């Protein structure tokens, strides 16, 4: 067997091993059913905002007490720290790569002179520096939401006038015309598939928490829509999943919410949570975090993937722009 084939075989086995590890995580329902344990799990995921939620779950499974995990290279570059002998790595998944190895801060030590007491203080300083803190201005996230939601077929309204009992609402509705940004200077008009409305009287942090909750309903497949496979859920599961999504996304960007008080209503007499689909929750968190980070590539968004008419419009527009650029290039070279 060639070295390349042998390497690919090992890489595939590593990936299969880690995917199986994720599946075990999702199947081990008893681990999460007690509400206290579940709260601890969510808080752990929220403490690693620089990792995707799936990888945060892998870290929690392998090293429940981890405080901060980085690669050998990052520990050296950012903090001048090296890995202790016999330290056990945490394995995470990377797109288009088999795995990556991370080490917890307590498995590292300074490259220079080592003093245990001084180093413990240094470790606490590093950890505290990276704890999520709520920004006074969350306009950045709201701006990205307004920019990206049309790419998912969602018309967004921030002037929803309702009582305090209802913070936001998402519903199936094709009556709105969307201006969907396909690249830096190009927009395509298309009808909506959903409308998301947020209470106008709420502050920005409250609006975000409500938006994340409603998007949680959509991405956890609580809306009966042809784009998605039908799934069975009770009212308790529906609300629990959507609020967990909101709690995780908010916590990972430093916004404090009252999700735990809300979720307490859905815990049964045995202090067990509803039988939720944690994989579906993670998918929803991942999608929302992609939406709030910045301008999304239209070809990776729901509208382009699911709506054939819209896809044709985008492809036609892109081909038109491409031909215009080629024509301009020819004219320029002729001078």
Please tell me about this protein's structure.
The chain has 335 residues and is of the alpha+beta class. The protein is built from 13 helices and 10 strands. The protein has helices spanning 3-27, 30-33, 35-46, 53-62, 72-79, 116-129, 139-148, 204-219, 235-252, 259-263, 278-293, 302-306, 308-334, and strands at residues 69-70, 81-83, 90-94, 97-104, 108-110, 154-160, 168-172, 177-181, 187-191, 194-199. The strands form 4 sheets. It has a 3-stranded antiparallel sheet. A 3-stranded mixed sheet has the order 6-10-7, covered by helices on one side. Strands 2-5 form a two-stranded antiparallel ribbon. Strand 3 and strand 4 form a beta hairpin. Helix 8 (204-219) packs across helix 11 (278-293) and helix 9 packs across helix 11. The longest helix is centred in the C-terminal third of the chain and has 27 residues, at 308-334. Residues 1-11 and 25-30 have low confidence and may be disordered.
Total strands: the figure is 10
Distance between the termini: 57 Å
Q: Radius of gyration, rounded?
A: 23 Å
On the 0-100 scale, what is the average pLDDT? 79
Structural class: alpha+beta
Total helix count? 13
The string of secondary-structure elements, in order, is HHHHEHEEEEHHEEEEEHHHHHH
